[in-house]
Amino acid sequence: MKESRPGAVLNRGLALAILIWLLQPFVSGIAQEPNRASAAQQTAAAPESLESLRSRLLAQISQPRFAPAAWGVKVVSLETGKTLFDHNSDKYFNPASNAKLYTVALALDRLGPDYRIKTSLYSRVRPDAAGTLKGDLTIYGRGDPAMAARLNDGDYYKPLEPLAAVLMNAGVRRIEGDLIGDESYFTGPPLGSGWNWDDLQWYYGAEVSALSLNDNSVDLFAKPADRVGIPSRLSTGPPTSHVTLINRTLTVAKGEPLRISVYRPVGENIIYVSGRVPIGSAGYSGSVAVHNPAGLFVNLFKEVLARHGIEVTGRSRTIDWKYREVTPVDLAKLVELGGVESLPLADLARETLHLARILDAHLLLARQRQGGPDLRVLHRLRPVGMEADLHLDGHLDAGVLDAVAVLVVRQIDATPGDEQAGENDRYS
């Protein structure tokens, strides 16, 4: 792949991301003027001719404010297939979030729109007549991205209720053993190559785990205290001992500016919060990624089980692929007490692309790369003319992909002569 300086990659990725948004008014025949214009001025007439369209597009991307950026543009008529505008369409760019198009299309092609991701409950024995499970209970994840409060009415615990119901239906009322979160289904580092270290503390830089919950993040809240001069009130949603809050904030007088700084060191679950929170303000809220998200999953699941009267006498712990390399397990020799399936992949695809869910895309990519360390997209993209050296990164990174504008156009357009591929592209 072509290597680029970090600053150049940012500019190029931003330029291409802006392009998708920017071209919609022209394609639909409606152009938006600067925000300072009145409502009447914001609707421009459709281009009078093809040459007019080209001139307006060129003028748009030639503005002085875009001088540091590099544009790769290709506009094609969906009716005739003819090229309407072309500018650097054969140059390599880092497409940033547009790489999700390839990740999702590949998932649909390899797995199908009806595919569901299963999370299983395993033990070495079945519960006895009294409902006691004499041994460890293992929650074995395979990367379901939909176990999230955002899909469950904002309830942090609701995504785990189906698993608890499965366990109760299996007759389990007490667990005399450990609660194990097994995330070993995914191998390799939990972070994508090239990620910036200062992004890793936020939800959009969350670690990838086969046992993912609530986007592998906790919501952080800072509210003003009752009087000036004392620390503000910090809390997380959900409340959990998985993270430790260090409060270095101060409540200040009403009307003063809100200033909050958050720092979670890489590889730790200590969240340092500093700053000033004025009385009478709504305070601060943000979403902070956690280290070892499988641990958060297990801790919250233990709370859900307790709510249903299921006691766990052992401790909560996690197992990853490094442990399984030394101590492998044959799932076929375990007792599967039940499992929960995700939404269909078609629905996961819509959620991933509509809300630009970074973690969801990485989970879908990790789900597909079980066959080898380097997932080539040639299987999916050969019909649209990709070259052999363009591929998704071998690590868990759905965003590292050099591409050309012509590829974006070809990927969005359904593959000719392939009905199922066309249907899959419609989902993506």
What does this structure look like?
The protein is an alpha/beta fold and 428 residues long. It has 3 domains: 6-111 and 373-427, no CATH class; 118-192 and 295-345, D-tyrosyl-trna(Tyr) Deacylase, Chain: A; 197-289, no CATH class. The chain contains 11 helices and 16 strands. The strands form 5 sheets. A 5-stranded mixed sheet has the order 15-7-5-3-16. It has a 3-stranded parallel sheet with strand order 4-6-14, with helices on one face. A 3-stranded antiparallel sheet has the order 9-8-13, with no helix packed on it. Helix 3 runs antiparallel to helix 7 (345-354) and helix 3 packs across helix 8 (358-368). The protein is globular and about 80 Å long. 35% of the residues are buried.
What tags apply to this protein structure?
single chain, 428 residues, alpha/beta, D-tyrosyl-trna(Tyr) Deacylase, Chain: A, 3 domains, 5-stranded mixed sheet, 11 helices, disordered N terminus
Summarize this, please?
By secondary structure, the protein is an alpha/beta fold. The chain contains eleven helices and 16 strands.
Give average pLDDT, whole number. Answer: 81
How many strand segments?
A: 16
Question: How far is it from the N-terminal to the C-terminal residue, by CA?
Answer: 25 Å
Structural class: alpha/beta
What percent strand?
A: 15-25%
Strand order of the largest sheet: 15-7-5-3-16
Assembly type of the shown chains? single chain
Overall number of domains: 3
Largest sheet: 5 strands, mixed
Rg to the nearest angstrom?
A: 25 Å
Which H/E pattern describes the elements?
HHEEHEEEHEEEEEEEEHEEHEHHHHH
Percent helix: 25-40%
Shape: globular
Q: Please mark out the parts with pLDDT under 50 across 5 or more consecutive residues, or reply none.
A: 1-43, 371-401, 414-428
Determine the number of helices (DSSP H or I, runs of at least 4 residues).
11
